[in-house]
Write a sequence for this structure.
């Protein structure tokens, strides 16, 4: 402050006319200063408003696309379970039943529903109304209940992704559904949209017959990944995230808490502990992708652990969240007043008994909160997992920590890269689910902090 | 026999050991527990540790050594004509043995001796696993028995348990150091291998980046240029855009929150910033690619201002990265602004300064070192950010300062070079480690300096 005091007399004398309160100059100056004050305050409010607006735009742009993915278009067809096709031998052998030509059943049901369609090209277009997963659906039905053979049933099939997108109105047509039903054709030229007028006609006809319905998209939450948007689910990624987080939790929490207890309660103050502390602070700021490089070079190449496994992903994320857990635990330990320790020591407890019986239980809520926040970070992390190969296309639901798996953020990354339009809404839906988990975890942390917060 | 069985056996032994130890201690004390040096549960833990630790260490050692040891022994059985070859052929041989042992078809004709070696490898491993199981079991039982025999009134069970605990705590606190050492060593080691192909000077100062290496020498684009300058400038360009967005907004919102905002606004704005901070980067990346990039193209492109805008412009990625960093800048600046003593404010008010004059002429100059530190931390964050740029910035290594062109960054290149299966003997893959080393050193330096600045500044007012 000394330099300001030094140049005060000179500058003031030069710049300012002697103040006479109520003079016009004085009033003008005061007004300008007050205006500057108001402007400055507005800038501040604008900054906050911009940040809030960005959040709103971000959430809106994702939710406005993603909510559509929670519903899926289904088409009802009359399927005749022809014994000649399914079980010519009449043995009801499950293996034979599974291999039968179910696509043929669907195709003949479609040709029956649209008898006027002929020609290879049109028929191929017609077959493309129904998702390619339809035949597996029928196979499952028949294997589970062979008595269906010989009967005719109404079966709801998933529509293919283009029809689904068209039904939801995300593919351009130019007119609303009602207008089309009234006979007004699409205004968007046919060659600039993925489905042509014939497809739209068939869809409208099915719709008019009550053969189209929107159902909750259970595939999205129960199935693994797929190349077909309408068959792609994120359950595999959710399970993978779960296994990965279990590993992270099992490693980061015991090691982090133990390290924090040592540094906070037992470590002598010397150069060595200083080094550990500086090291932890720096580790907290190392870019996450560098941890991925570490995982790749050390755990995959050197130790030969399996690629794409939640085990390796979990270890890498544990190393990454370790500083968070250590820092939070140290803060929680610091918040326990020394009087507790002194009282325990006074009645004859050993230093370790003081920590284990008194300090740690009192610090537990703080540790828990820090842990949950660390886990939320790990759940949202993508980059290091790309390095250890968790970015593979995996259809099966992982069964253990050494199975190939992917995690939610990586699934989002992979889906966002795919060209099909239907994946845009699925990516957004996956983001909504991920954000839901994160909000849940952070909300839990806030709740626990509020509930157990203790001022000494 | 799977080594995990031994783990279960050890677990059961520890439980048995704990209760046996506790009982033995109570019996030795003959009902008058105060005669014991330690309470019985410490005797229980004492026995538990003796039963578990030696067997567990043995198991850990075996698991770490198993495949290496078995492979060495299996290779050693092979005739000399297989093993007397150069290092490269030897590693190929090892890979063959491992693949055949794992039942993977190598797709090549393999000598019967190699098949025998693979069989020997499998046999050695399963034999070793069985042997380790019994040795481990024996060690566990022996440890249990030894510890039980030592239980007496004078046994300082608590002290011994606590010294083991102490060692455990120290080991845990060393994990952080080991992580850093692991990072440095793995980056250095792989980067050194990279630098045997590409001299460091060419890597750091070359202007051409195209890591694709052709399989044949006459193929188009076979050059494989590894000059990283376009990546550095791309990173700096996106970082600069991010800072232009994040620093004013973050700083002004911190000022507003700590000096102006009424309680209601503050309690509404704080969660907003926290949510912005908690959104995963992959979500920002998706937002940048799907919402911000088209928006930038519309606004500045042919339909808007008529500029030439690439579909993956640096501007879109930079703006979204800036949004991501706003809460970071804001919370750090909030800390430093709050650390400025109230007496400085009161002094300024006493001289008749308005609030904004106080902030601009007293608080900000006083907090400047801290703010500089905060900005440096934010820059290091932006440099290391991967997902936003991977999803929204391009792969084309353009040497440009035009924010409407596509640029690529260090992290994008690391991510794209290392995703998928890689061979670890090509400069293309290893260049990622060279880039990683640069990234690590730069962010580390920025952090060290920033932390030092912030700390020094904090001490000034304490």
């Amino acid at each position: 402050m000394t330099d300001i005091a030094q140049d005060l007399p000179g500058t003031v004398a030069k710049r300012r006319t002697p103040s006479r309160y109520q003079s016009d100059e004085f009033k003008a100056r005061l007004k300008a200063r007050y205006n500057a004050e108001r402007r400055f305050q507005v800038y501040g409010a604008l900054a906050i408003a911009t940040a809030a607006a960005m959040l709103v735009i971000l959430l809106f742009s994702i939710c406005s696309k993603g909510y559509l993915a929670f519903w899926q278009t289904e088409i009802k067809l009359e399927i005749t379970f022809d014994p000649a096709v399914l079980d010519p031998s009449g043995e009801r052998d499950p293996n034979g039943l599974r291999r039968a030509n179910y696509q043929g059943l669907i195709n003949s049901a479609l040709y029956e529903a649209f008898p006027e369609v002929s020609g290879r090209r049109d028929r191929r277009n017609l077959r493309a109304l129904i998702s390619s997963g339809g035949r597996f659906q029928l196979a499952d039905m028949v294997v589970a209940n062979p008595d269906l053979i010989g009967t005719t049933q109404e079966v709801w099939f998933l529509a293919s992704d283009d029809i689904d997108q068209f039904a939801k109105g995300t593919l351009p047509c130019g007119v609303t559904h009602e207008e089309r039903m009234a006979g007004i054709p699409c205004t968007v030229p046919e060659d600039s949209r993925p489905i042509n007028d014939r497809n739209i006609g068939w869809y409208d006809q099915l719709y008019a017959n009550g053969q189209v319905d929107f159902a909750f998209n259970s595939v999205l939450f129960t199935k693994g990944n797929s190349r077909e948007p309408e068959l792609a689910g994120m359950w595999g990624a959710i399970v993978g995230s779960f296994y990965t987080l279990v590993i992270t939790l099992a490693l980061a929490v015991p090691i982090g808490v133990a390290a924090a207890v040592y540094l906070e309660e037992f470590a002598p103050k010397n150069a060595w502990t200083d080094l550990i502390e500086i090291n932890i602070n720096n580790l907290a700021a190392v870019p996450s992708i560098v941890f991925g490089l570490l995982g790749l070079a050390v755990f995959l190449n050197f130790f030969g652990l399996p690629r794409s496994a939640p085990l390796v992903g979990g270890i890498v994320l544990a190393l990454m969240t370790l500083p968070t857990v250590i820092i939070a635990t140290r803060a929680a330990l610091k918040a326990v007043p020394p009087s507790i320790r002194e009282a325990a020591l006074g009645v004859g407890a050993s230093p370790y008994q003081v920590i284990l019986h008194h300090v740690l239980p009192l610090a537990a809520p703080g540790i828990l909160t820090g842990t949950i926040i660390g886990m939320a970070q790990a759940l949202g992390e993508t980059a290091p997992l790309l390095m250890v190969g968790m970015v593979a296309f995996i259809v099966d639901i992982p069964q253990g920590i050494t199975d190939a798996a992917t995690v939610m953020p990586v699934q989002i990354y992979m889906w966002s890269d795919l060209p099909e339009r239907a994946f845009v809404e699925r990516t957004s839906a996956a983001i909504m689910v991920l954000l839901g988990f994160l909000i849940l975890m952070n909300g839990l942390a806030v709740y626990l902090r509020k509930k157990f917060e203790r001022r000494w | 026999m799977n080594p995990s069985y031994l783990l279960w056996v050890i677990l059961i032994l520890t439980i048995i050991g704990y209760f046996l130890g506790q009982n033995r201690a109570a019996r030795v004390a003959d009902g008058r527990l105060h005669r014991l040096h330690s309470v019985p549960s410490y005797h229980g833990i004492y026995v538990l540790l003796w039963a578990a630790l030696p067997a567990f260490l043995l198991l850990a050692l075996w698991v770490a050594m198993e495949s290496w040891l078995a492979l060495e022994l299996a290779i050693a059985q092979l005739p000399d004509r297989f093993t007397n070859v150069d290092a490269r052929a030897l590693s190929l041989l090892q890979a063959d043995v491992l693949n055949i042992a794992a039942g993977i078809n190598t797709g090549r004709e393999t000598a019967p001796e190699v098949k025998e070696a693979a069989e020997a490898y499998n046999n050695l491993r399963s034999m070793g696993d069985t042997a380790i199981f019994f040795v481990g079991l024996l060690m566990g039982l022996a440890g249990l028995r030894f510890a039980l025999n030592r239980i007496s009134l004078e046994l300082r069970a608590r002290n011994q348990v606590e010294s083991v605990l102490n060692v455990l705590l120290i080991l845990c606190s060393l994990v952080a150091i080991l992580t850093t050492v692991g990072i440095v060593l793995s980056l250095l080691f792989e980067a050194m291998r990279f630098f045997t192909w590409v001299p460091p000077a060419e890597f750091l100062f070359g202007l051409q980046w195209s890591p694709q290496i052709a399989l044949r020498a006459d193929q188009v684009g076979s050059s494989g240029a590894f000059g990283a300058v376009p990546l550095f400038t791309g990173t700096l360009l996106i970082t600069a855009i991010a800072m232009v967005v994040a620093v004013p907004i973050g700083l002004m919102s911190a000022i507003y929150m700590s000096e102006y905002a009424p309680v209601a606004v503050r309690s509404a704005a704080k969660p907003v910033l926290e949510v912005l901070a908690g959104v995963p980067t992959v979500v920002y990346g998706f937002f940048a690619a799907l919402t911000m990039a088209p928006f930038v193209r519309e606004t500045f492109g042919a339909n808007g201002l008529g500029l030439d805008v690439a579909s993956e412009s640096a501007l879109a990625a930079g703006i979204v990265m800036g949004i991501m960093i706003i809460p970071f800048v804001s919370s750090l600046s909030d800390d430093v602004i709050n650390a400025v003593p109230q007496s400085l404010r009161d002094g300024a008010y006493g001289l008749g300064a308005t609030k904004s004059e106080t902030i601009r002429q007293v608080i900000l100059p006083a907090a400047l070192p801290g703010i500089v530190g905060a900005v440096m931390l934010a820059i290091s964050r932006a440099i290391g950010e991967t997902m936003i740029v991977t999803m929204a910035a391009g792969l084309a290594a353009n040497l440009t300062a035009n924010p409407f062109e596509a640029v690529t960054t260090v992290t994008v290149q690391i991510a794209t070079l290392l995703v998928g299966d890689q061979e670890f003997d090509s400069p293309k893959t290893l260049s990622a480690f060279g880039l990683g080393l640069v990234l690590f050193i730069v962010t580390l330096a920025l952090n060290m300096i920033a932390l030092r600045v912030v700390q020094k500044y904090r001490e000034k007012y304490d």
